[in-house]
Specification:
nine-stranded mixed beta sheet; Alpha-Beta Plaits; binds iron/sulfur cluster; Rossmann fold; alpha/beta
Length: 295
């Protein structure tokens, strides 16, 4: 499995950092993250980091008014035409196809495609590519329901979420406050933004739905966690509404446990739609497992 450039960087690990993730969008990650954070906060200091950067919504569920604490900036290439010898090496180095090159006109940058990886600057033999800054995301902070929240949001139109997640983690590392447990609410999928969020976690609760697509995506995220060496605990959401054996078979094949089965219920749906953290005995079971991880 390929790990992108952003994920070759290291960040300090806090005392106990766990992830709530899932291969597919809409499986209930935010529901579980917020419910788990509130349950744990009854006995512990808890930081919930909403690093689902495309659509962070934990603050809405927890009715937290967010305050912006930081802009995340990205380097964009700026070409010095006087120095450029039109060799094309910058275009060859760009994996995002963000540089169009011709011998006649030289390189042209497509800003919307650029992730700010700086490969073109490194590749240029005559140092003809300088940098300018642009805002690629924002970090917010807030507090409610006994939970401290850090919320990371990508700027509309930006492609690469990993730098925003990494910036959120750096912000956490630089904070004087420390918490007994940090929960990372990740994006869905297995892309670099998710890898950035889970790679230094001591465990991950993986939310899955018992549908063919849900099972397929669950397999992918479990494989990713296995490659990263992050222990996984499966949480079945909307249990009993699909073919539960789809998830049970995956758990059995991988020797993993389904630690909770959250049913589909009117109370849960109402709490979620009204912006209230969900309370349920299955959430308490998950919290008990997380408590045992606190060092
Ligand atoms: S910074 Fe990276 S993505 Fe942007 S143009 Fe250069 S090589 Fe391409
Ligand atoms: S690598 Fe540098 S010199 Fe070569 S085309 Fe790109 S900007 Fe010009």
């Amino acid at each position: 499995m390929h790990l992108c450039r952003e994920n070759s960087q290291k960040h300090p690990v806090t005392k106990t950092r766990i992830a709530v993730t899932g291969g597919k969008g809409g499986t209930g990650k935010s529901m579980l993250s917020t419910a788990l954070a509130v349950e744990l906060a009854k006995r512990h200091s808890v930081l919930l980091a909403d690093v689902d950067v495309d659509c962070p919504d934990d603050h809405l569920i927890l009715s937290i008014e967010r305050e912006k604490i930081k802009d995340v900036e990205q380097d964009l290439p700026v070409i010095d035409r006087e120095k450029c010898i039109k060799c094309g090496k910058c275009a060859d180095a760009c994996r995002e196809n963000a540089i169009i090159f011709s011998k006649e006109t030289g390189p042209r940058f497509i800003e919307d495609q650029c992730t700010g990886c700086t490969a073109c600057m490194i590749a240029c033999p005559v140092d003809a590519i300088g940098r300018k800054k642009r805002i690629s995301g924002r970090i917010y902070r807030g507090k409610g329901n006994g939970v401290e929240l850090l919320s990371a949001e990508i700027e509309p139109g930006q492609k690469e979420g990993s730098p925003i997640v990494n910036s959120a983690k750096e912000t956490l590392s630089g904070m004087k406050n420390k918490w007994e447990i940090e929960i990372m609410d990740t994006a869905a999928g297995t892309h670099c933004t998710v890898i950035s969020a889970v790679r230094d976690c001591s465990a991950a609760f993986v939310v899955g739905e018992a549908t063919p697509l849900g099972a397929h995506d669950l397999e992918l995220i479990l494989e990713l966690l296995s490659v990263l060496g992050v222990p996984a605990y499966i949480v079945m959401n909307k249990a009993g509404t699909g073919d539960d054996s789809l998830i049970e078979d995956i758990a059995k094949k991988r020797g993993l446990e389904i630690v909770a089965r959250i049913p589909y219920s009117r109370e849960i749906a109402e709490a979620y739609s009204q912006g209230r953290p969900v309370e349920h005995p299955e959430i308490e079971k998950i919290a008990e497992i997380a408590r045992k991880m606190i060092k």
